[in-house]
């Protein structure tokens, strides 16, 4: 009777739990038992491990094999348990020194020929291992760079079981012929905005007010709603938004990279996500692909892939009501919980939301509206698809009308280029960051209420316009709070230490779509 | 036998009119005339005995046979509705509608012979100081806001707000009046017991508890497109003037505007952005000579209130001291530099004046505090901002 033991990680959303994998070989009728609530993919480990071990010139014991994964009552999902199971078995046979597997987490899928395949979720798994004081992690070579992003843990990246065994024994790994890389292991298709490097705000003609809205939204990370007929430039403006944002901070990068790791989207050689991600799901996409969820394994959806970046919902009112409903939790708390009968997973989802929509189903309800073929009740119903709670959290609403001929011919000044706008946004963000020094939030829009009120009180002489609107019921308390945040962002962009009356007026204008307040800045900009 | 004005109808006649409100389409000119000329009891009798010929008479006879007056009464009692007829103390003055009975238009409607009413007020006296606020169902945030403030403003000055209870501007107007704890009247296209649209059940109940619900159609009647248009004339007739807040080019509220114009009532419109589809209809309305542009409650009431009793303040920009000067002094003031003082001689040349004249006037301007003397020169006073 011999046993071998090693560790792995079970991933629950972005959180990981340490799992102990133990193998026992006893005399008796040859058989195999796998316990610890394995799902179908884990149950298949047996066949993969057997072939891999045999092809790595190891033995598959002809005895009773029992493998246990603890905690026994935690469901085990995924193909990454292949490696720890194989290593535990080898240790049970005495092929590996038990000490080499102590304080060690193994995570990887085995091919039948003994090669290790990259798996999603390595980064969160390694982070979890580090948090639990594990000293070493063994991962597929393709995931090694990703795993090394975490400090404090030694990473052993192995290409095959043979190499792994040799390294764990302290021997020189045998030189293997350079194997054909699996096509299926090719670089994943990453989601990037179209023509990311060539796209520039200068491509958009006119639309001075809409550009200003995009700039303010980027500076303070405010949610933005652009309404207008087709072809007015809403999509172009939204697509050019992510480029205006500064690089992610290190901690933001780690969080975002973890989510992208779970989705299997990381590049092998440069896995770190350092730019704010951009996600633009289509309204016809399935709800789980947007929100998160899926078959056996709960995977992050577009809203989580946009963590610390931009989520753009084009044709926002065409999205299913269930998507709109599901947005409430992330907009409120910055994360999404996906509950199902057999479990729940939490993913981070703190994004800047940009929505674009037509004014009515046919898109022609502007100007004189002669071409609009919608009946009034349909027009009304269409607008009401944006639920109240979501609309209340949109800080900036702007009507984007088709550009006039005069505007088409006008050249937009260079101060309107993406680079210049990004520079102004970066400066404004630095001012805000100084106010929130040691806090984990960086922008006016994100900071929780009590901290915001403590650090960014509005001077008493400028709150009057806001109070007046609250008194007549045109602004809710939340609305007043959002306007205050907008005012600080406008002040940051203007280089002022605290908001002046003109900033509050500007904020009201942006929030109420021009119904209240005045916009001085949009008129002066070239 | 016709009725003399001022005579309260008998119970039997009232019952017959209630029955006729079920038999004939609301606003049907023939029905209105016949009831006025012969009385409803007579008409019902004729229908029963088959003496009322012609196509309509036959259709009416059929509906009469199918009508259930007991059920109607029960339905009315259930919601606490009553039936008003001409001659009742609460009956409003709708005689003007009689003049439109022979108007050459596709939609013809007569002076009502009775109205179903719910609510604690006397319709007749309330409409003496009532304003109609109507508009698009697919209203914008701007329109809802303006309609609400207009209604609240009128209500605060003791005027009732009349509208149709529909989604959009109508609802905003009713709510605005209710918020100001004023009176509001909703004129329905359905029977008094059917609150339409369903989503406004709560709102209309509110209106019924402090204001009035009015319906020409019998209890149980559903709102049809025709009945909407016919009831619009009542909205116009039960008010001293009509304001259209928002309307698309084909909006139904423009129909109400037409009635107001035909009845000779003031017709008003609130403008909006020219890029907004929901204001396009109002702008078209305002281009007609008989309609008037209004921007707030004071202007509305100025038009509907008896002449001279409620003048609205004329709006002007703030008066600045410069405005009071004569032309020459203004020219001189323009020549005085803002910051660095200049000698009289150069200021005089700039202003095309003789130096002595310039000096005299500069002294006067200094007395008003508009310019000051610094060293050997003159400049604008720093405490006054003379920007136009």
Explain the layout of strands and helices:
The complex is a heterodimer of chains A (526) and B (388).
Chain A: E1 2-12, E2 15-26, E3 31-35, H1 40-43, H2 45-55, E4 64-70, H3 82-92, H4 98-101, E5 104-106, E6 109-110, E7 116-117, H5 122-131, E8 136-140, H6 144-147, E9 154-158, H7 161-169, H8 208-220, E10 224-227, H9 234-239, H10 250-262, E11 278-279, H11 287-291, E12 292-293, E13 299-300, H12 302-305, E14 310-313, H13 321-333, E15 335-340, E16 343-348, E17 352-357, H14 376-383, H15 388-392, E18 396-399, H16 405-409, H17 418-435, H18 449-455, H19 464-471, H20 477-493, H21 501-511, H22 521-524
Parallel strand pairs in A: 3-4, 5-8, 8-9, 10-17, 10-18, 11-14, 14-17
Antiparallel strand pairs in A: 1-2, 2-4, 6-7, 12-13, 15-16
Chain B: H1 11-23, H2 29-38, H3 40-48, H4 54-66, H5 69-79, E1 82-84, H6 96-99, E2 115-118, H7 123-126, E3 130-134, H8 141-156, E4 160-163, H9 169-179, E5 184-188, H10 201-210, E6 212-215, H11 225-237, E7 242-244, H12 253-262, E8 267-269, H13 277-286, E9 291-293, H14 297-304, H15 327-335, H16 344-350, H17 355-367, E10 371-374, E11 377-380
Parallel strand pairs in B: 3-4, 3-7, 4-5, 5-6, 7-8, 8-9
Antiparallel strand pairs in B: 1-2, 2-6, 10-11
Can you put this structure into words, describing what you see?
The complex is a heterodimer of chains A (526) and B (388). Chain A has 526 residues and is an alpha/beta fold. Chain A is 36% helix and 17% strand. Chain A has 22 helices and 18 strands. Chain A has helices at 40-43, 45-55, 82-92, 98-101, 122-131, 144-147, 161-169, 208-220, 234-239, 250-262, 287-291, 302-305, 321-333, 376-383, 388-392, 405-409, 418-435, 449-455, 464-471, 477-493, 501-511, 521-524; strands spanning 2-12, 15-26, 31-35, 64-70, 104-106, 109-110, 116-117, 136-140, 154-158, 224-227, 278-279, 292-293, 299-300, 310-313, 335-340, 343-348, 352-357, 396-399. In chain A, helix 2 packs across helix 3 (82-92), helix 8 (208-220) runs parallel beside helix 17 and helix 20 (477-493) packs across helix 21. The radius of gyration of chain A is 27 Å and the shape is elongated. The N and C termini of chain A lie far apart (81 Å). Chain B is of the alpha/beta class. In chain B, strand 5, helix 10 (201-210) and strand 6 form a beta-alpha-beta unit. The radius of gyration of chain B is 30 Å and the shape is elongated. Chain A binds chain B through residues 359, 365-370, 372, 376-377, 379-380, 383, 399, 401, 473-474, 512-513, 515, and chain B through 136-138, 141-142, 145, 167-168, 179, 248-249, 251, 274-278, 280.
């Amino acid at each position: 009777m011999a046993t071998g033991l090693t560790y792995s990680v079970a991933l629950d959303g972005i959180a990981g739990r340490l799992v102990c994998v133990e193998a026992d070989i006893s005399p008796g009728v040859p058989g195999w038992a796998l316990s610890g609530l394995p799902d179908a993919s884990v149950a298949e480990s047996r066949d993969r491990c057997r072939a891999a071990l045999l092809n790595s010139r190891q033995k598959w014991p002809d005895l009773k094999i029992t493998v246990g994964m603890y905690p026994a009552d935690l469901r085990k999902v995924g193909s990454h348990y292949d490696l720890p199971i194989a290593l535990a078995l080898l240790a049970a046979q005495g092929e590996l020194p038990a000490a080499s597997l102590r304080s060690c987490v193994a995570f990887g899928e085995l091919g039948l020929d003994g090669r290790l395949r990259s798996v999603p979720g390595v980064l969160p798994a390694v982070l979890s291992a580090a948090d639990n004081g594990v000293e070493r992690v063994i991962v597929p070579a393709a995931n090694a760079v990703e795993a090394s992003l975490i400090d404090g843990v030694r990473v052993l990246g192995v290409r095959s079981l043979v190499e792994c065994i040799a390294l764990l024994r302290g021997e020189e790994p045998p030189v293997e012929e350079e194997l054909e890389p699996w096509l299926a292991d090719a670089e994943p298709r990453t989601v990037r905005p179209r023509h990311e490097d060539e796209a520039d705000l200068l491509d958009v003609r006119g639309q001075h007010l809409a550009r200003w809205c995009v700039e303010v939204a980027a500076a303070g990370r405010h949610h933005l709603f652009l309404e207008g007929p087709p072809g007015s430039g809403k999509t172009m403006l939204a697509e050019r938004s992510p480029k205006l944002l500064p690089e992610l901070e290190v901690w933001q990068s780690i969080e975002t990279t973890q989510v992208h790791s779970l989705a299997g989207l990381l590049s092998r050689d440069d896995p770190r996500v350092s730019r704010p991600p951009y996600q633009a799901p289509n309204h016809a996409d399935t709800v789980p692909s947007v929100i998160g969820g899926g078959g056996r394994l709960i995977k992050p959806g577009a809203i989580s892939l946009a963590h610390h970046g931009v989520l753009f919902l084009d044709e926002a009112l065409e999205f299913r009501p269930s998507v709109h409903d599901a947005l409430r939790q992330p907009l409120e708390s910055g994360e999404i919980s996906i509950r199902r009968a057999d479990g729940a997973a939490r993913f981070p989802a703190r994004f800047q939301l940009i929505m674009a929509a037509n004014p009515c189903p046919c898109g022609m309800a502007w100007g004189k509206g002669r071409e609009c073929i919608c009946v009034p009740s349909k027009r009304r119903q269409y607008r009401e698809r944006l639920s109240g709670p979501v609309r209340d959290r949109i800080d900036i609403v702007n009507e984007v009308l088709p550009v006039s001929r005069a505007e088409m011919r006008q050249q937009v000044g260079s101060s309107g280029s993406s680079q210049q706008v990004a520079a102004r946004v970066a400066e404004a963000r630095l001012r805000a960051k100084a106010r929130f020094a040691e806090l984990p939030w960086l922008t006016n829009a994100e900071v929780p209420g009590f901290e915001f009120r403590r650090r960014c009180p509005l001077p008493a002489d400028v709150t009057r316009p806001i109070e007046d609107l609250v008194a007549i019921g045109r602004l809710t308390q939340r609305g007043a709070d959002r306007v205050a945040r907008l005012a600080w962002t406008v002040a940051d962009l203007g280089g002022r230490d605290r908001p002046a009356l003109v900033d509050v007026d500007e904020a009201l204008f942006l929030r109420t779509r021009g119904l209240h307040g005045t916009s001085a800045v949009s008129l002066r900009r070239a | 036998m016709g009725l003399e004005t001022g005579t309260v109808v008998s119970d039997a006649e009232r019952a017959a009119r209630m029955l006729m409100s079920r038999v004939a389409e609301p606003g049907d000119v023939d029905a209105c005339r016949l009831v006025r000329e012969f009385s409803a009891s007579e008409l019902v009798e004729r229908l029963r005995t088959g003496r009322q010929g012609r196509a309509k008479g036959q259709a009416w006879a059929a509906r009469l046979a199918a009508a259930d007056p007991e059920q109607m009464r029960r339905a009315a009692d259930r919601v606490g509705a009553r039936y008003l007829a001409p001659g009742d103390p609460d009956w409003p003055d709708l005689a003007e509608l009689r003049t439109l009975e022979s108007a050459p238009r596709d939609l013809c409607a007569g002076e009502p012979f009775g109205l179903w009413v719910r609510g604690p007020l006397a319709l007749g006296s309330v409409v003496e100081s009532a304003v109609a606020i109507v508009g698009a169902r697919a209203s914008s945030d701007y329109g809802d806001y303006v309609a609400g403030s207009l209604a609240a403003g009128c209500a605060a000055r003791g005027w009732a707000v009349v509208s149709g209870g529909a989604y959009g501007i109508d609802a905003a107007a009713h709510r605005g009046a209710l918020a100001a704890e004023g009176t509001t009247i909703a004129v329905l296209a359905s029977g008094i017991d059917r609150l339409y649209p369903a989503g406004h059940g709560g709102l209309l109940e509110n209106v019924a508890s402090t204001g009035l619900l009015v319906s020409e159609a019998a209890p149980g009647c559903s709102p049809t497109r025709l009945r909407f248009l016919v009831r619009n004339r009542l909205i116009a007739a039960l008010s001293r003037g009509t304001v259209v807040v928002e309307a698309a080019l084909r909006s139904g509220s423009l129909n109400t505007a037409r009635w107001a114009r035909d009845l000779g009532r003031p017709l008003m419109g609130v403008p909006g952005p020219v890029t907004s589809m929901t204001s396009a209809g109002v702008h078209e309305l305002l281009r007609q000579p008989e309609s008037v542009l209004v921007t707030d409650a004071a202007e509305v009431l100025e038009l509907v209130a008896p002449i001279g009793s409620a003048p609205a303040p004329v709006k002007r920009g703030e008066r600045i001291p410069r405005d009071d000067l004569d032309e020459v002094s203004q020219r001189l003031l323009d020549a005085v530099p803002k910051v660095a003082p200049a000698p009289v001689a150069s200021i005089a040349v700039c202003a095309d004046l003789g130096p002595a004249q310039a000096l005299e006037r500069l002294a006067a301007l200094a007395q008003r505090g508009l310019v000051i003397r610094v060293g050997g020169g003159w400049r604008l006073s720093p405490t006054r901002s003379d920007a136009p």
